[in-house]
Design goal:
Length: 73
């Protein structure tokens, strides 16, 4: 379901940049704002996912090294 979002007190420079991008991409300002928000969220989630995978790999490596040192005891 689509919902409405209203942004108040947006800096003029941000609005102007979105308007310029919208014109260049042949979109409305609203369509461009949605596209930019989607892109930013995908990047943020993607980076978070990569960090999470790196952390999990480090933890798995640490757990693996601890279990092998325990079995040697």
């Amino acid at each position: 379901m689509d919902v409405d979002l209203f942004i108040k007190k947006m800096p003029r420079v941000v609005k102007d940049l979105i308007s310029r991008e919208a014109f260049e991409n042949r979109r409305s300002v609203n369509q461009e704002a949605i596209a930019l928000l989607e892109e930013a969220l995908l990047l943020r989630v993607g980076h978070a996912g990569q960090k999470r995978k790196q952390i999990e790999a480090v933890l798995e490596g640490y757990a693996g090294s601890n279990s092998s040192s325990r079995s040697a005891i």
